[in-house]
Amino acid sequence: MKKIAILGAMTVAGLSAGVASAATLDDVKARGKLNCGVTTGLVGFAAPNANGEWEGFDVGVCRAVAAAVLGDPTAVEFVPTTGKTRFTALASGEIDLLARNTTWTFSRDVDLGFEFVGINYYDGQGFMVPKDLGVSSAKELDGATVCIQTGTTTELNLADFFRANNISYEPVPIETNAEAQPLYLEGACDVYTTDASGLAATRAAFENPGDHVVLPEIISKEPLGPLVRHGDNQWGDIARWTLNALIAAEELGVTSANVAEMSASAGNNPEINRLLGTEGTLGEMLGLDAEWAKRAIMSGGNYGELFEKNIGENTPIGLARGLNAQWTEGGLLYSPPFR
To answer: Where residue 6 falls among pLDDT bands split at 50, 70, 90?
Structure first.
């Protein structure tokens, strides 16, 4: 098993090295669309709607990058990936950007040869159980069967938590959230564990959400964010600063509703002017035009708009901003200056 894991890591690293020198921006422009890796389906984050159109919080990042680079937020080919296939898809060049609730870790960044361009959701791993199981703490799960997605940090965190608390469990391996839901509801596993945001999204999709409880323990740090391949610094900068543009726009009060008006003429706030391209040459530094950030914001709104529309407290997912509030509001969200 260990040998297979090592060979798998070497394969991903080798693929990354093979395509790292490619000018991704040129490829995307020549193709006329962005190939963006997403989850196979997690409502609120990335899932097709009734018309087959992809929507969600992570989808919004893909569309913002497409708008910045191609001038069209719909110029995106969404590529569903699992925990096992996502890294190979990115390393091989099948996708240009992975925006799939992926945790930033040392080994993924360094050993697999990827570059995380920022954090768009601060999360942590939790546990969901049926209410009638009568459990109020994850420490009461000794001997439980647990549905767990393979090839994820969730799998490793689960083993660490049970070992640290000297309790045992029986894993029920799954590949996707869609696979987990029926197994959990049918009782094939007592517990479903994944990122707390994923549990909220999964629970919201149940016919009777109130029959299920998310336990209070958060057992890990899961900084989720988009990533690209090592070696193409320009493309990494474009993805990074597009995400930063959405974050900074919320802080500065720039929204999808007012961005056109605010960009029509330079105002009194120099940072807003630089962000929207009415002052300075930030777009030129990225190899884009002056209105790249304006288009990114118009595509689906600033960070706060994307959050509230897709996963916020007024949606079925019902997530509070918490750590994902702006730094000025007690959260961790913070963009470097546009200067």
So the answer is: very low
pLDDT at 18: 47
Structure tokens at 219: 């057992």
Residue 4's SS3 state is: helix
Q: Judge contact between 83 and 152, C-beta under 8 A.
A: yes
Give the total residue count for the chain. 339
Reported as a single tens digit per residue, the pLDDT across 224-257 is: 999 999 999 999 999 999 999 999 999 999 999 9
Pairing state between β 47-48 and 54-55: antiparallel
Cα–Cα distance measured from residue 162 to residue 142, given in angstroms and rounded to the nearest whole number: 8
**H or E element that contains 202:** helix 196-204
Pairing type for strands 125-130 and 191-195 reads: antiparallel
* Distance separating alpha carbons of residues 148 and 192, to the nearest angstrom: 7
Please say if the pLDDT value at position 19 is more than 90: no
302 three-class SS: coil
C-alpha pair distances (Å), 196 with each of 121, 123, 148, 215, 311:
11, 7, 13, 10, 12
DSSP state letters, 125-185 = EEEEEEGGG---SGGG-TTEEEEEETTSHHHHHHHHHHHHTT--EEEEEESSHHHHHHHHH
CA angle 142, 143, 146 (to 5 degrees): 100
pLDDT in tens, 141-167: 999 999 998 888 899 999 999 999 999
Tell me, what DSSP letter sits at residue 235?
A: H
Separation of alpha carbons 6 and 23, rounded Å? 29
Q: How far is 19 from 120, CA to CA, in rounded Å?
A: 26
Q: Sort 280 into a burial class: Cβ within 10 Å, 0-12 / 13-18 / 19+.
A: middle
